[in-house]
Specification:
Layout: E1 2-4, H1 5-15, E2 16-19, E3 25-27, E4 31-34, H2 44-50, E5 57-59, H3 63-76, E6 83-87, H4 91-94, H5 97-105, E7 110-116, E8 150-153, H6 160-172, E9 179-185, H7 186-189, E10 192-194, E11 203-205, H8 214-226, E12 230-234, H9 236-241, H10 244-254, E13 258-260, E14 275-278, H11 285-293, E15 296-300, H12 306-309, E16 320-325, H13 328-331, E17 337-340, H14 343-354, H15 378-399, H16 408-418, E18 424-427, H17 432-439, E19 449-451, H18 460-471, E20 476-481, H19 482-487, H20 491-498, E21 502-508, H21 513-521, H22 546-552, E22 556-560, H23 563-580, E23 583-589, H24 613-620
Parallel strand pairs: 2-11, 4-5, 4-6, 6-7, 7-9, 8-9, 12-13, 12-15, 13-14, 15-16, 16-17, 18-19, 18-20, 20-21, 21-23, 22-23
Antiparallel strand pairs: 1-10, 2-3
Helix pairs in contact: 1-2, 3-5, 3-18, 8-14, 10-14, 11-15, 16-17, 16-23
Length: 627
């Protein structure tokens, strides 16, 4: 098949298929997000136009935003589908680097196709080219190397025959999943090669469930049996593996309390008797209490990031750590007994090791194993529900109606109350992650929350919601602050133009409130966060009319200034988004200083002359570097 490099790339994208958690076959690449320029409009743009009925192309309005939409799509499909984003060279390409960082930090697949300069160098320097005096091979696209799991520059059309299988490997691998960048020089996009037809035959990419080593499983089972207060920590890897049911089955059989990380939120129904709540700084006092008392931590599918571990002060210093992770890089952290493998497969194999009646000829027994089924002491098991009940009472107090401007907790409470079991809620930055992670009560079913707190990228909330709305059947509600809205809002128009319904709740508290809280809480002077503390030449500086702005972007708009108004307006926004197939924006004036707090420490650098230094040193002394 004589095809241009761009035509071959598009044909290959169309041929790739994927299998969902429930076994349905779907396109691996269901959408391309594109902003065309001279670096991609004729080569890749023409190829995409020719096959436009087979692979949808959606126009973005910022390169960063459309790439973040692709990330949101991947998260909403539990990494079973991958969004593609293409830009021209130079500034358009560099605008996607932040989105690559989001995907990399969160282990989410993303395919980036930035245009590049001419390989022949005949017209150099071309428009938007950055020249390096000491290295003629460098272009701005090399900036993607630091935030790509796989990077390549296609300098010949036939190079695709070797490169694209590696692209599929990285995007669909449980351990290596992350962003892939293929830099596409604009002259090479148009060059022709005689490709073998077999290269474009359909391929179905299924989840490869790698198994943990049997000897390590036996060791882990022996350590678990020896513990008296084990705790099961579920992270995003459980979500992507579809292993929530396996985790619950193991916990129920042996009476092990369960907590969730940020990426693992909504895996467990809130009222499950073994559920102790979300863990860490943005989590719950109930889960943190259980973590501090546990003598063994079984962490499944988690990187154990600082917000999850309270900068490694949430666990007892003498606790034992067992990890289950698809990536050995994550599994071996912090002195853990590492089980490297798929979460669902490893949990099932561990269940066999813990139940003597399930052991077969191929399973390994460790000396000291007994024939009696192991079960945790009933008091420890019951403690999960007891401490969570206390946390629930605290959240109920924070959600209770008050006079004046609503708090974040009250807004989250309204959204939680009116959302259905299939609806999807999102956030990423500012104070909202602590409110959503710590206060949300999941009703069960598939995971229904995306809190992007690996990179905590301001602007992901709207752009990522656009991608999620394409992929998720339930209504997507995204929650953000005024600062994040101003950072990146263009994809509201993209979603409105494309006809994708979602609800965006903009909580306006007059600035970067959560960073002001950190600044002033450690003894710093109020400075450059709230507008009242920012430099201006105006006696009465202007304010943003968020409602008018969102309306100008094609959204249905609602406003609220108290809890009752929030409830009524959110109900109307949900209806408008669905009925009109466009975003509905609810602007809420909120209190700037009322927060949901779990009582955990987060390490930040505190200068010695600030009042927060003493508390810093006290907490630093409790930090555990190696379990």
């Amino acid at each position: 098949m004589k095809l241009t490099a761009a035509q071959a790339l598009v044909a290959w994208l169309i041929a790739q298929r994927s299998e969902t958690i429930d076994g349905h076959e779907v396109p691996l690449f269901p959408a391309v997000f594109a902003i065309f320029g001279h670096g991609n409009v004729l080569g890749l743009g023409t190829a995409l136009h020719e096959r436009r009925d087979e692979i949808p192309v959606w126009r973005g309005h910022t390169e960063e935003g459309m790439a973040l939409a692709a990330v949101g799509l991947a998260k909403a499909t539990h990494r079973r589908q991958v969004g593609v984003a293409t830009s021209s060279i130079g500034p358009g390409a560099l605008n996607m680097v932040t989105a690559a960082g989001v995907a990399h930090a969160n282990r989410l697949p993303l395919l980036l196709l930035p245009g590049d300069t001419f390989t022949t160098r005949a017209p150099d320097p071309v428009l938007q080219q950055v020249e390096h005096f000491g290295d003629g091979t460098l272009t701005v696209n090399d900036a993607f190397r630091a935030v790509s799991r796989y990077f390549d520059r296609i300098t010949r059309p036939e190079q695709l025959l070797a490169t694209l299988p590696q692209v599929a490997r990285v995007l669909t691998d449980a351990a290596d999943a992350g962003p892939v960048t293929l830099a596409l020089p604009q002259d090479v996009q148009a060059e022709i090669y005689d490709f073998p037809e077999s290269f474009f035959e359909p391929v179905v990419h299924r989840v490869v469930r790698s198994r943990a080593d049997q000897r390590s499983l036996a060791d882990a089972a022996a350590v678990l049996r020896a513990s008296s207060r084990p705790l099961l920590v579920l992270g995003g890897g459980v979500r992507y593996s579809g292993a929530a049911a396996d985790a619950v089955e193991l916990a129920e059989r042996h009476g092990i309390p369960i907590v969730e990380t940020t990426a693992g939120r909504t895996l467990i129904p809130h009222q499950h008797p073994l559920y102790a709540g979300p863990l860490g700084v943005t989590g719950s006092a109930s889960a943190n209490t259980m973590a501090g008392a546990a003598d063994l931590v079984l962490a499944v599918g988690t990187r154990l990031q600082d917000f999850t571990t309270a900068s490694w002060t949430v666990f007892a210093p003498d606790a034992t750590l067992i990890t289950i992770n698809a990536a050995r890089f994550d599994a071996v952290k912090h002195g853990a007994l590492a089980l490297v493998g798929d979460a669902a497969a490893a949990l099932r194999d561990l269940a066999v090791q813990l139940d003597p009646n399930m052991l077969g000829q191929n399973e390994i027994r460790r000396s000291g194993d007994t024939d009696a089924e192991w079960r945790v002491d009933a008091d420890w098991t019951a403690r999960a529900a007891a401490v969570r009940t206390e946390w629930d009472a605290h959240i109920d107090t924070l959600r209770a109606p008050t006079t004046g401007l609503p708090t974040y907790a009250q807004v989250v409470g309204v959204v939680n109350e009116l959302s259905g079991p299939d609806d999807y809620v999102m956030t990423a930055s500012g104070g909202m992650p602590g409110e959503l992670v710590g206060g949300w009560r999941a009703t069960g079913g598939a995971p229904t929350m995306d809190v992007e707190y690996g990179f905590s990228c301001m602007g992901y909330e709207i752009a990522g919601a656009w991608g999620a709305a394409m992929a998720h059947d339930g209504l997507v509600t995204t929650m953000l602050g005024d600062g994040s809205y101003l950072m990146l809002n263009s994809e509201l128009f993209s979603a409105a133009f494309a006809g994708h319904p979602l609800v965006a709740i903009v909580c306006d508290n007059d600035g970067y409130a959560v960073i002001a809280r950190l600044q002033e809480g450690q003894g710093g002077e109020p400075f450059n966060n709230f507008y009242a503390n920012c430099r201006t030449n105006h006696a009465e500086p202007p304010r943003v009319d968020f409602a008018a702005h969102a309306r100008a972007l094609g959204c249905a708009v609602f406003t609220a200034t108290d809890v009752d108004e929030v409830r009524n307006a959110y109900a109307q926004a949900r209806t408008a988004a669905r009925d009109e197939s466009r975003p509905a924006v609810l602007v809420v004036r909120t209190q700037p200083s009322a927060w949901t707090e779990a009582g955990a420490w987060w390490e930040v650098g505190v200068p010695e002359h600030l009042s927060g230094r003493a508390a810093y040193e006290e907490s630093k002394a409790r930090q555990v570097r190696y379990l």
